[in-house]
Amino acid sequence: MRKPKIVILGAGYGGLMTATRLQKTVGVNEADIVLINKNDYHYETTWLHEASAGTLHHDRVRYDVRDVIDRHKVEFIQGSVEEIKMDEKRVILENGDIEYDYLVIALGAESETFGIKGLKEYAFSIVNVNSARQIREHIEYQFATYNTEVEKKDERLTIVVGGAGFTGIEFLGELANRVPELCREYDVDYHKVKMICVEAAPMVLPGFDPELVDYAVATLEKKGVEFRIGTAIKEATPEGIIVAKGEDDVEEIKASTVVWAAGVRGNSVIEKSGIEAMRGRVKVQPDLRLPGSEDVFIVGDCSLIINEEINRPYPPTAQIAMQQGEVCARNLAALVRGKSELETFTPDIKGTVCSLGEDDAIGVAFGKKMVGTKASFMKKMIDNRALYMIGGPSMVLKKGKFNIL
Ligand code: FAD
Ligand code: NAD
């Protein structure tokens, strides 16, 4: 009998979790498993703010996909997915195509610019290793260039971060630690540097615990970050950004670096493939399958799960993507064994910790609020746990964070 072919798209948290759990539970005689990813490496998306600020080298945030898959059980193909032809059960890659019996879409998120003029052209986004490297290099170049010009351009030393969500705040935490190093390295007066965070909502980290938010704002302000709250980015230009506080209060901020961290959407492959979605995110069935489909699963940032208690979607997180990967693997194992009853996915939210640089953080974990070194320790434990869940103890030893205070 022909073995079913399971094809997993994306080697991020959701995809790798699915692949590594499947290789443990499904025998080689039961199914062929294929994992496809754009790069031959996995990156810890949750550490990209560190690589972007330059506080952690980008090689520390990535590892070879083949280090965590069992090559006797999972075939790895490096390739970029362009489209899924659902009616033909075929995935079109940049360099070929592949058929599937079961498909897992785990292609992660992209930056959402909400159609704001100039953002795509003039702002950076923290989305992958390439963009992180580019942001780090760009900022460093501004510092390196500043003293070489006869007419000094102070805007070279202005860095604007759009959005005070978790990504914006975590990036600012790293940046605030990196800037004094850059000033020393390039003989730049620290007082000339501006780090400005522009947030449209009336508060930083909208919806998060106000006491913890106050701690984060005070900490970052002490390190030189200026917050513009209730202020929306309206346009990005080659010179900087245009912001507005209300209808009439429009202002231009001149800045050589603009990092847009104000929104994410699911991967554009979803819409390109004609799959019904809201900003690239598909409201999946309780068993994680695409509505109306028997054989396509969607996990991670391309999926959308409603929190019934508040009737709003859960924010897309690595925590959820990894939990979905485990359930998805169990459901696939059931299907290849001819079972039709599948497990329902329910997120088990253990908490949220937001770093404020490598030595400080805020968070709520297991119902307890924490700040400072305690929260920072917890964040590193969470980071190490993700490595452990996918790559086991050897990956924690290779890539783990042990600079515990
Ligand atoms: P990802 O882990 O991003 O993986 C997607 C994979 O698909 C990547 O390997 C990518 O290369 C690949 N891919 C993309 N397009 C293609 C294509 N066309 N063809 C082939 N391969 C492709 N969440 C938390 O829970 N805790 C945190 O502390 C946290 N911190 C974060 C910090 C930052 C800076 C950011 C940006 C996000 C953070 N998140 C955090 C959110 C979390 O990173 C995402 O929710 C999570 O990565 C989603 O997992 P995923 O498997 O869907 O996608
Ligand atoms: P987000 O959507 O959570 O936050 C974006 C922020 O940008 C919001 O505060 C929003 O009000 C603001 N904004 C939107 N439009 C704006 C505009 N025009 N001008 C100024 N501000 C504007 O996005 P994110 O922070 O990138 O997070 C994405 C996902 O990743 C979330 O689910 C988040 O929970 C998760 N994440 C988690 C962690 C963590 O747990 N430590 C860290 C990073 C990201």
Give the SSE map.
Elements: E1 5-9, H1 13-25, E2 32-37, E3 41-43, H2 48-53, E4 62-64, E5 74-78, E6 81-85, E7 90-93, E8 96-99, E9 102-105, E10 109-111, H3 119-122, H4 129-146, E11 158-162, H5 166-186, E12 194-199, H6 210-222, E13 225-229, E14 232-237, E15 240-245, E16 249-254, E17 257-260, E18 264-266, H7 269-272, E19 282-283, E20 296-298, E21 303-304, E22 306-307, E23 312-313, H8 318-336, E24 351-355, E25 361-365, E26 368-371, H9 372-399
Parallel strand pairs: 1-2, 1-9, 2-5, 9-20, 11-12, 11-17, 12-13, 19-21
Antiparallel strand pairs: 3-4, 6-7, 7-8, 10-18, 14-15, 15-16, 22-23, 24-25, 25-26
Helix pairs in contact: 1-8, 1-9
Bound molecules: flavin-adenine dinucleotide and nicotinamide-adenine-dinucleotide.
Account of the protein in words:
The strands form nine sheets. This protein has a five-stranded parallel sheet with strand order 5-2-1-9-20, covered by helices on one side. It has a four-stranded parallel sheet with strand order 13-12-11-17. Strands 6-7-8 form a three-stranded antiparallel sheet. Helix 1 packs parallel to helix 8 and helix 1 (13-25) crosses helix 9. The mean pLDDT is 97. The longest helix has 28 residues, at 372-399. It has two domains: 5-111 and 264-349, 3-Layer(bba) Sandwich (FAD/NAD(P)-binding domain); 124-260, FAD/NAD(P)-binding domain, CATH 3.50.50. The chain is 31% helix and 27% strand. It is globular and about 75 Å long. It has 405 residues and is an alpha/beta fold. Bound molecules: flavin-adenine dinucleotide (FAD) and nicotinamide-adenine-dinucleotide (NAD). The site of nicotinamide-adenine-dinucleotide has 25 residues, from helix 5, strand 12, strand 14 and strand 24.
